[in-house]
Amino acid sequence: MIGNIKNISVLLSLLASSLIYSQELKYEEVVQVDSTITKQELYNRSRSWFVNNFKEDGAILLVEDSSSGEITGDASLRYNTSKIYFAVQCTIGYVSFKTNIYVKDGRYKYVFHTFKHHGTDCRRNGAVNYGLLTLEEKPPKPENEYPRKAPWNDIKEKTDEKIKLLISGLKEAMNKPHESNNNW
User: Fold this and answer.
1) pTM of the entire structure?
2) How many CB atoms lie within 10 A of CB 36?
3) Distance (Å, rounded) from C-alpha 12 to C-alpha 46?
4) In CATH, what class is 24-174?
5) Are strands 70-79 and 27-32 parallel, antiparallel or unpaired?
């Protein structure tokens, strides 16, 4: 009997953690391009896109594997707002995230995920960090502050706008030939 209760507890824990994980803010799509575009060409295009879009925010390429067709990196976006809410100056900061791009002949897949908000340390109690961005409407309790819906929604809205611009730029870059420096 006790063994069954432990098994049920473990299953419920796993189910609860998978439900929480599935609520993570995530952007993912498989995009078909001209079938004659090779995996290597798409790899070159995606690598150039990553380097050109994140050079100023201290992004790091963690995986650059042309044979498997994978680009993986950590990047961040500046979070700023013109809205006024309590502790706004300590909430302004960055949203860090992970980027994965996988390429094959004639198609690629992008995944932007694990968005985490990091506020600015601007007072005795420190920064207001909302942490992992999720699809939940109810805000989590940030570090050093009470949960507030206005900043939570604003952070997610601003992140959504910026990521959609990045995705649009990625799609544009993946449809243009890679500029090689071999023709000089």
Assistant:
1) 0.81
2) 8
3) 40
4) alpha beta
5) unpaired
